[in-house]
Amino acid sequence: MLLINCPYCEETLPELEFAYAGEAHIDRPADPSALTDEEWRDFLFIRTNARGTHFERWRHIGCGRFFNAARDTVSDRFLTTYKAGQPRPDLKEAAE
Amino acid sequence: MNMQEHDFATAPVQIKELADLVRFSLRVRPEHRADMAAALAMELPQKVGDRAGFATGETLCLGPDEWLILTTEPAALVDAAREAYARLPHSLTEISDREITLRLTGPQVLDLLATGCPRDIEALAEGRAVRTVFDSATVVLWRDGPAEFRMDIWRSFAPHVRSLLAQAEAELIAGL
Ligand SMILES: [Zn+2]
């Protein structure tokens, strides 16, 4: 089973306490009416589908909070987790 | 549904449903936590999983902006919250009937909990409590002593959780 560190609880806990919630760092457009159909489609449906490092959202059932994680989609290894609202971390630092 | 009670000292676990409790869910932003605690005359712990007692009850930090409050004086709590509402925006909701609470005790209570909880329950310190899952049903697990727990279970999940607990209890009694 995967072990995931919740940045709010500051505890590493089993995957069963967490729910996956899609790709991270996708901002909702401030003025949806100003978008073309293609831009709105891209916002709704087009995702990175990365092979390798993927930035994604997770929710911890324990504290009820969404947070972000960087996970390698090949090895399924969690590289780091960080609070929602924080920028993408520099993974070179996290890897060391 | 009645659970069998084992009063004899040799029982590996005891499972008992507690009488109705008065519970509230409090949501308030972290920056208002300290002022809200003062307004309600209780401690609102900052760390997820920490608990604190107050004159007529107990509080538990479930998340950075979420607390569970058990109290025997609900009217006083609601009055204090209403008084503070204009300067401290928050949500205080009575959730007494949302869950039932089981008291789980006995020398093999950790084995009982391990049948459904993926978390390392032994590592949960006495006097703390966490929201976790038991066979995918969300529960709040309070550790009151080395072999003494309370489990709050949402009503609709209670028959499922209780039947699994009863089955695990039977296996423990049989020495499996
Ligand atoms: Zn958490």
TrEMBL record, chain A:
Task: Spell out the Pfam families in the cross-references.
Answer: SoxD
The record's annotation in InterPro entries points to: SoxD, SoxD_sf
Please give the Gene3D superfamilies that the UniProt record associates with this protein. Answer: Folate-binding superfamily
Superkingdom, natural source: Bacteria
- The protein depicted here goes by the name Sarcosine oxidase subunit delta
Please tell me the species this chain comes from.
Paracoccus maritimus
UniProtKB/TrEMBL annotation, chain B:
Which superkingdom does the taxonomy of this entry point to? Bacteria
Coiled-coil stretches noted in the UniProt entry, renumbered to this chain: none
Which Pfam families does the UniProt record give?
SoxG (PF04268)
InterPro entries referenced in this protein's UniProt entry, alphabetically:
SoxG, TrmE/GcvT-like
**Protein name according to UniProt:** Sarcosine oxidase subunit gamma
Question: Which species is the source of this protein?
Answer: Paracoccus maritimus
